[in-house]
Fold:
Amino acid sequence: MAFTPTGPHAERRAGDDRRQSDRRHPMTGNRMDPGAAGPHGGIERHEYDVVVIGAGGAGLRAAIAAHDAGARVAVVCKSLLGKAHTVMAEGGIAAAMGNVYPDDGWQVHFRDTMRGGKMLNNWRMAQLHAQEAPERVLELEEWGALFDRTHDGLISQRDFGGHRYARLAHVGDRTGLEMIRTLQQRAVDLGVDVFMECTVTELFTEESADRRRISGAFAYWRETGRFIAFEAPSVVLATGGIGKSYQVTSNSWEYTGDGHALAMRAGASLINMEFVQFHPTGMVWPPSVKGILVTESVRGDGGILKNSEGKRFMFDYIPEYFKAETADTVEEAEGWYTDKKNHRRPPELLPRDEVARAINSEIKAGRGSPHGGVFLDIASRRDAEFIRRRLPSMYHQFKELADVDITAEPMEVGPTCHYVMGGVEVDADTEESIVEGLYAAGEVAGGMHGSNRLGGNSLSDLLVFGRRAGHNAAYHAAKVGRRRASVTDEQVKQATADALHPFEAASDSGGGGENPYTIQKDLQDVMQRLVGIIRRREELAESLADIATLKERAKNLSVEGHRQYNPGWHLALDLANMLVVSECIAKAALEREESRGGHTRDDFPGPDDRWGAINLVLTLPRGSDEVDLRHQPLPAMPEDLKKLFDQ
Amino acid sequence: MGYDLKMRVWRGDADGGELGDYTVPVEEGEVVLDAIHRLQATQAGDLAVRWNCKAGKCGSCSAEVNGRPRLMCMTRLSDYDESETITVTPMRAFPVIRDLVTDVSYNYEKAKELPAVRLTPRDPDGKRRMMQVDVERGQEFRKCIECFLCQDTCHVVRDHEENKQAFAGPRFFLRYAELDMHPLDTHDRRQLAQDAAGLGMCNITKCCTEVCPENIKITDNAIIPMKERVVDRKYDPVVWLGEKIMRRGDRASREEI
Structure:
């Protein structure tokens, strides 16, 4: 759907599009009317300074920043505006505003973030994030967000795993919705052009003296299947994550690793791809909702985890690394909710990787709940009114989808694939990748969260680095001025042919090729079974062989129907991205012979200092479809920041 | 346990279409969207449907299930008898693009017509203060997931394409009310709500409230208070002038736009 008066909707409102839609090629759905014979073969073209791919928190914040910096900006997104996955974020935005605990400050937030990521984070990103998050939250308020308040009228902040102080700005348990709506309304207010239901399939680049530089992007309208080429010297990737490659995930269909794959094909590098976050608490029953997120706020607000024997088991899983700051008796844990100065945190609020592994162990040991999870109990600990007020959407979700009243009985929960720490390797200050003019922000970027992300640090990440990416992308476009790279007709022709390939294959094979839904299902099975929470060498090697087979099968995809709003075709194109990203995850997971954060090796159960100083960098060599991996030293933290960890 | 569900799903595009008959195996605890997905994965790979979160949070999978505007992801099969045929059709108030996907650009156009929030300056410490009780009314309206089911069901536009020009619909009356109740906003949009957005055309039949999956009391908490506020402005110029001159109350800091 176009959101600009010049887009296809203007045409349609004029009423001619409908009649002409009769004249389509029977197989491809290509329009056969005279419009198809323009100078560029009927392909719609647009020129912008900055093209932002993705309209979640990072994409919209980037677009607003680029607009504010004077750039002409387009946002291109796969869904309708306002539906991006950010909407699913529940708990809050981590920002050391000190509204509840004046002792909080960026240094404490920085330290929590680095420790949560087991020190593998890009220190500079973690620093910028902690320093800038508070102002980004206040900006949202400026644009209309209505956060929950403290008694004296300030933005309220709630407790979350791994954060020393109550730090998450929130709106009940629907903070992501508030954030996306606020940014959406701001972008509309500013008049940013939005190309909705428009999927980018390729980035265009040009060789320059020393490195490749961005010249534009190629996309199709989901609605019509027609193609569209963007020319722009700056592209911001804000496409989110990769969760759809797993069977049990909290992620939506959009999370097919598009930005990760686009970046690689354009010559950029990925880091930290072995680190995938399994959120400890996803719904496990009924089957149709398996994986849907149950917010960490349930635990932040007093919820505890119990096994089938009724035991509060997290006390058995406190790792050495967090012993000093975690309560080891029920009495101390209970005291913490009201007196944080004199009590340590309950073990339920350890970082997510620790809690997910603990739940996994309990289930494996046969102490799981009837539907293969564990019990998350807030009903016996807080009164019904409190639960409904603090966790309204959890109450609604369980009531409507599982017939469970969370104010009266415990929930059944288990780990669900939630977030990828890895992503495009970027410069910490500018968010530019190694490809000139290609920026990445949010989940698609790597480095900020190290080996494990703390809850609440995602929404703040989107805002802080979305803004930085947008600003720098606009600056880059201004700097390039008229010396822009151009997109050649040859490039457009090639991108068109690639996108139409699934239809060609279908007609070559007489429609007897592979069903994209089946390959997706098989890939999800491989990733879930062999590259899941607990990994081992043999299984990872097996997964790589399986992925290679799936890549072969995917060459023979068959798609029915025509190009107009055809989900089978869309999935066929997304699959290529899912496959290359899955290969990255498996390859890096096989290489890293230690356990750290979101990467747990059964055969190498502990962390290893040597690995703690190394990033694994993945690239796709030109003309190859096999991922290349190399080691790279982690950027070294300056001494003044190191001191923060002495305490 | 599992059974074979008989479904009728509307297939077609702007040029016309018809209900297709399908039999889809379904499992315990599933929702209509699960059945649609299985249909798509096994029998009709090109069946067009919008969806994202599958948890009632994004408002993408709006359709009409047995004639009733619903989110497919929140409509449980167990609410129907196993022998019952479930009919799924696209939202009727919007033009069909293909199958269950409709052109909802009307809503995005209306969103553009609504002047955004403009707050009073920050406090000297760079922060803003609002009391929980004062933000709660607006928070209820901001629960809106923009599924547009209220727009779909509203009889002012449901079968009256000609009214769309002058009528923004319940979703945007929510927004006018939210901004009018914002403790720190500086705009007065009452005239705009009445004239440009067509608030007066609503005759409070509460259909919108009935279909809202977020259970927002659209009519009682947003539309009726907004209508009252418009009336205040219309018939009581003395009060309005008094507020303006005496700088009394919330209205004092607002500029009409």
Q: What stands out?
A: The longest helix of chain B spans residues 218-235. Chain B touches chain A through 61 residues (CB under 8 Å). Chain B has a mean pLDDT of 92. Chain B has ten helices and nine strands.
